[in-house]
Specification:
Chain lengths: 263, 263
C-alpha cells in the first residue's frame, strides 16, 4: 500500500470499502473535510433534524440524506455511507451494542443519514495561522467535557452540550475566534472563553472524554462545541437504533475545508 | 394610536393581535429582525425542514416550532403566530385560496411552523454603511426574479431559486458582499454578481415580482437569494395546505438584527 497520507479522499474511501483501513482518520487527506455520522430510523428523523437546526454549533449539518438513500451528493458523488467509514458504532436503546466495519447487512429503507462537520477542519486553519493546537502537539485526543450549557431540546432529543478545550495564548485568542468564526459548518466560533466553572467544568485535568493537555502560563482555556454532543444526546434519548461512526473514525469527504469557509 | 414607528415589537404585535394593524411591516420596529412565515401540516414537515437545510440562502431558518406549538421562544417569548402577523395567505394544493387576519380558527395540532430570515435585516446594515438601497430610495418593492439556479430538492419540494436584485456602485460591491456575509441567517452573501443572463434573467426591467428599479451607469446588478422562494416552491409542490404571511406583512421579532450577525 502506498503511504495512505498521500492518497486522495476517493482512494482512501476505496481502501476503507474493501476493509483495508479501519483505523482513525486524523491526519488523512489533509485539506479535505471529514464528517461525523449519525443514522436514525425515519421516525426519529424530523426530531433530530430539528435538534441540529436548534443547536448548529454542536451539530453543524453538512449533508442529510433522505430515507433509504446511502449515497452522498454534496460531500462526494462517489461514496456509500454503508461501507465507506472505517468503523461504525451501533447503539440500541442508548447502549453501545456493537462496533463493525460495515453496515450493509443491517441497512433499512427508512434510515435517514446525517453528516455533521468535524473540528479537524478548523484545527487545520488554526495551524496554518501558526496557532498551535495542544492536543495535536502532545499527540493526544482533544479533551472533551460535558458542560452545563443545555442544548435546546427538540422532540425526544435533549441533553447538555459537550465541549472541547484548547488552550490558546492570551494574545492569540482574538485571532482564534476570528479564524474559527469562518467555519460555521464545523462548530464555528468558541462557545465560551475563560473560567471553566462558568460552564460547569470543575477540573480541566479531568476531561469526560479524551485526554488532559498541558495549559501553560499565559494561556486561556477556549471552549468549542463538540461533535460528540449528538452521541451523548442519543444515550439520553435512547432511540431503538442509532448508528454512528466510531469516534475518530470519520467519513472523509471530497470537499475542501476552504469550501466550507465563509468570508 | 401613538405613531407606530416609535413602538417596540411587543407593542406592534399587540396591535396586530387586536386586528388594529393589517398593513405591511416595512419600516416598523427598525433594528429588529422580521421573519417570513411558513406553516405546514406535519406530514410535510421533515421534507420542508430538509429543503431549508439544503437551501440555506433562500430559506434561512430562524426558528422552527414543533407540531402544534404556536408560541415562539427564540424570536420572542411573547408571541402567538396564529394572531401576531398582519395578514396570512392560505394556499390549498398550491393555489392561493384566502387572505386573512388571523388563523386561530383553522389551527390544527399537527401544524409545524417555520420562521425564516428576511432581507430587511441586511438592508438596514447596508444603509448604515451608506450603501443606498435603490428600491427603498425609489419607494418601491424590491425587484424579484425567478432565476435559472435550481434549489436542491428535498422530498416533495423542488423549484428554481427566486432572487432579489439591488444595483450597487462598482466600488461598493465588495463592501456589500462583506456586510451581507455577516447575516447568514437572513440570506447572507449574494448568490450572483453581474451578468443577469448567467442566471437566466433576460430583462432587469421586467421582474417576476415587485417593481423594476433604476440601474445607473457604473452600477452592477447584485443578486441575493429571496424569501419568496419557499412560496414559489409551495406552488409547485402543491401541499394540501400551506399558510404563509402575505408578502410584506411579516412577523416582527424581539431579536435585534445585530444579534443575527456573525463576526
Amino acid at each position: 500500500m502506498k503511504n495512505i497520507n498521500q492518497l486522495l479522499p476517493k482512494q482512501i474511501r476505496s481502501l476503507i470499502r474493501k476493509g483495508r483501513w479501519s483505523k482513525p482518520t486524523a491526519g488523512l487527506a489533509m485539506g479535505y473535510a471529514q464528517a461525523n455520522l449519525v443514522i436514525l430510523p425515519g421516525k426519529y428523523a424530523f426530531d433530530f433534524l430539528l435538534f441540529c437546526q436548534r443547536n448548529p454549533k454542536p451539530c453543524p449539518l453538512l449533508e442529510v440524506l433522505e430515507s433509504g438513500v446511502h449515497r452522498t451528493s454534496f460531500l462526494s458523488s462517489d461514496a456509500d455511507i454503508r461501507t465507506d467509514i472505517p468503523r461504525y458504532n451501533i447503539y440500541r436503546r442508548g447502549r453501545l451494542e456493537d462496533t463493525v466495519k460495515e453496515i450493509s447487512d443491517i441497512w433499512k429503507s427508512d434510515f435517514v443519514t446525517f453528516l455533521l462537520g468535524c473540528s479537524f477542519s478548523f484545527e487545520e486553519a488554526l495551524l496554518r495561522a501558526k496557532i498551535s493546537v495542544r492536543h495535536i502537539e502532545e499527540n493526544k485526543n482533544v479533551p472533551m467535557f460535558i458542560s452545563s450549557i443545555a442544548c435546546k431540546s427538540a422532540g425526544v432529543f435533549h441533553g447538555p452540550m459537550v465541549v472541547t478545550m484548547r488552550p490558546i495564548p492570551s494574545d492569540k485568542v482574538s485571532q482564534a475566534v476570528q479564524i474559527t468564526s469562518r467555519y460555521v459548518s464545523v462548530h464555528g466560533a468558541p462557545v465560551h472563553i475563560g473560567d471553566p466553572l462558568k460552564i460547569g467544568i470543575r477540573d480541566l485535568k479531568k476531561p469526560d472524554f479524551g485526554d488532559p493537555v498541558t495549559i501553560k502560563k499565559d494561556e486561556i482555556p477556549v471552549f468549542w462545541a463538540c461533535g460528540v454532543t449528538p452521541q451523548a444526546v442519543m444515550m439520553k434519548a435512547k432511540p431503538d437504533l442509532c448508528i454512528t461512526h466510531t469516534p475518530g473514525h470519520m467519513f472523509i469527504s471530497d470537499l475542501l475545508n476552504e469550501e466550507l469557509a465563509i468570508l
